[in-house]
Design goal:
Layout (H helix, E strand, L loop, with lengths): L5 H24 L5 H4 L1 H13 L7 H8 L8 H15 L1 H9 L10 H11 L1 H9 L5 H10 L4 H34 L2
């Protein structure tokens, strides 16, 4: 479908992503998206918004960390799966920005290096960059889109990387919170 009707696919994806961003942003700033209040759906939406938007700084990993607090009572794997899934869906915006043409990110000093890495290492590079907790992945998504990297392969490797990062973050935050509360005697 993507190759046969790219405009239709882009329109559908952009509509879903922009609709989710607008809805989630309104909910976030209204205070309705606290991870301890809305649980798994809040983690999903905050990660979707955080990955889909470079302009609005929404800390997706902070939502994973907050949801992992022992007193919230959520499952770490569930938090990681939903956080990683939301982040993966959000990364489609960067891919489509690269696929659709030139982006302001393509003028950054990191773009050429990341693009060469995606050309040389493909799936492995996307996977590793998705696992690492850094904002450089937006550049990788744009590079993959501009290179015409297959969208299904892009989503699969990003999904696995984001899931590992989210589950690891959830467990690390839970352990850190336990350690800190023991340290200060709470």
């Amino acid at each position: 479908m993507f190759n046969r009707r790219p405009r239709l696919f882009q329109t559908i994806v952009w509509t879903v992503v922009v609709g989710s961003i607008v809805t989630g942003t309104v909910m976030f700033f209204a205070g309705w998206l606290e991870p301890h209040d809305v649980g798994y759906s809040g983690v999903f939406l905050i990660n979707l918004i955080g990955s889909a938007s470079v302009i609005i700084p929404v800390p997706g990993l902070a939502a994973v960390c907050a949801a992992a607090a022992p007193n919230v009572g959520l499952n770490m794997v569930g938090i990681g799966l939903l956080g990683g899934t939301g982040a993966t869906i959000g990364e489609i915006t960067g891919y489509l920005a690269g696929y659709g043409g030139h982006s302001f990110v393509q003028r950054s000093r990191y773009y050429d290096r990341v693009q060469r890495l995606v050309i040389r290492r493909g799936a492995f590079a996307l996977f590793v960059l998705a696992v690492l907790p850094m904002p450089l992945f937006d550049v990788a998504g744009i590079a993959a889109g501009s290179l015409g990297y297959p969208v299904r392969r892009f989503l699969i490797w990003v999904f696995f990387g984001k899931i590992i990062k989210s589950i690891g973050t959830a467990y690390a935050c839970q352990q850190s919170i336990d350690w800190f509360t023991d340290l200060v005697g709470l």
